[in-house]
Write a structure and sequence with these properties.
Blueprint: H1 17-26, E1 34-37, E2 44-54, E3 57-63, E4 67-72, H2 80-88, E5 99-102, E6 106-112, H3 115-119, H4 131-140, E7 150-159, E8 168-177, H5 181-196, E9 207-212, H6 221-235, E10 239-244, H7 250-257, E11 265-270, H8 272-289, E12 307-311, H9 317-323, H10 328-337, E13 346-350, E14 353-358, H11 366-374, H12 383-401
Parallel strand pairs: 9-10, 9-11, 11-12
Antiparallel strand pairs: 1-2, 2-3, 3-4, 4-5, 6-7, 7-8, 13-14
Helix pairs in contact: 4-5, 6-10, 7-8, 11-12
């Protein structure tokens, strides 16, 4: 949610209040959604414009093809035609205190008879393939008149505290009230339809395979997932299947041997070692699925599933490089919103072929000895690297003197 000075999308027609009242009394069907042509990209999009209450104050709310805009109504009332002309006027801009929310930052849309009912998180939302039938049934079920008057929008917002602390995200909610239940149902149906039809580069995950390393870092992987990630995944309606690893390379073996077609993405909760296992498993799985030699592939195909990285290790180098922070909720929000970013990997080979792939650090000599010896002192947390480094340095110095 940011302040903006972008021009409003031009609306060619606005339904008057008398026409809406006549349509509501004549039929149980909600008012028809106005379809217009956006002058920016010349594409058809649905436009809704209405008045809602937010924290017991009246706001004018506009929904266009990629934004939700709400602005406080002034005390002076205008007629419906005059009110619409303010937005229809070419070159009109957002007001100084106008709030703008991008559709891609929406996480969930819910409704209810009361505020508490609308805020209640129940069963996951329908899958993308079922949204069409779900919305059509909701719009055309004339035997059951709507009674919901509250509409809740759950969305993600970037937290900017300083020039260096500006990469964390958190979840907020916006509660809208309208006495006309038909309007609430219409907004709810259209917003859910827009969530189901997000851009291809922003994959909204519905089925997620989660690997949790309970031994990484300070052994808080399971706690991190249960406290921070699981509630957010439930809010977004994600069906998450969790596997708790018990040994080294178990995640890699599962990715190589099990059927991954039911899942939209893979998520790992752990440190850089857990990330390396997932990346190696997915790349070798892609090599095998392409019918290539795993030790001497002529090329390395791209894995079929994207990887979500939840930091729960000692250093979390990969997660920090991708998200700009080690905040767990930020990583989960990036996964929910489908924000993707490419990552380079390198391979380690010998005469026989590929040994493994790595995405963070490749080292030998002194740094390699430090990394290998630090595994004995994992109970020390991040301090084990400093301890192993000093110990290796003193041992190397003593060997040179001898």
């Amino acid at each position: 949610m940011t302040q903006s000075s972008t021009d409003f999308t031009q609306i060619h027609h606005a339904t008057s209040e008398k026409e809406q009242e006549a349509a509501a009394t004549a039929s149980l069907q909600p008012p028809a959604t106005q379809t217009v042509t956006s002058p920016a990209n010349n594409q058809n999009c649905d436009i809704l414009l209405g008045n809602f209450q937010i924290k017991k104050k009246r706001y004018r709310v506009l929904l266009n093809y990629d934004h939700i805009v709400w602005e406080r109504l002034k005390a002076k009332k205008c007629s419906a035609d005059t009110e619409a002309e303010c937005y229809l006027k070419q070159g009109a801009v957002y007001g100084k205190h106008t709030n703008v929310l991008h559709i891609n930052e929406l996480i969930r849309v819910s409704k209810g008879n009361t505020k508490s009912a609308a805020l209640r998180i129940e069963a996951p939302q329908p899958l993308a393939a079922d949204f069409g039938a779900h919305i059509a049934g909701e719009q055309h079920n004339s035997n059951t008149p709507p009674t919901e008057q509250y509409l809740v929008l759950w969305y993600a917002e970037r937290i900017v505290r300083s020039a260096t602390d500006c990469n964390r995200w958190d979840v907020h909610k916006l509660v809208l009230y309208n006495a006309d239940a038909y309007i609430v149902r219409q907004w709810h149906a259209l917003l859910n339809k827009m969530l189901a039809n997000t851009a291809p580069m922003r994959l909204r995950v519905r089925r997620l395979l989660v690997f949790i390393n309970p031994y990484g870092g300070r052994k808080r992987g399971l706690h991190v997932y249960e406290r921070h990630c699981k509630p957010l995944f439930q809010l977004a309606g994600i069906d998450a299947s969790c596997i708790i690893s018990q040994r080294s390379n178990q995640i890699r073996d599962i990715l190589l041997s099990h059927d991954l077609t039911p899942f939209d993405a893979v998520c790992c909760v752990g440190g850089d070692g857990t990330v390396a296992e997932v990346i190696n498993g997915l790349i070798f799985r892609a090599i095998c699925d392409a019918g290539l030699d795993a030790r001497q592939p002529p090329y390395v195909p791209k894995p079929a599933l994207p990887v979500g990285i939840i930091p729960a290790g000692s250093t979390d180098t990969v997660a920090y490089s991708l998200h700009g922070t080690s905040d767990v909720r930020t990583a989960a929000i990036h996964l929910i919103l489908g924000q993707q970013r490419g990552m380079d990997v390198c391979s380690v080979r010998n005469r026989e072929g590929v040994i493994r792939f790595c995405a963070s650090v490749l080292s030998y000599g002194y740094l390699g000895d430090v990394a290998a010896k630090s595994e004995r002192y994992r109970w020390m947390g991040t301090k084990r690297y400093e301890f192993a480094g000093v110990k290796t340095f003193l041992k190397t110095l003593a060997m040179r003197r001898n």
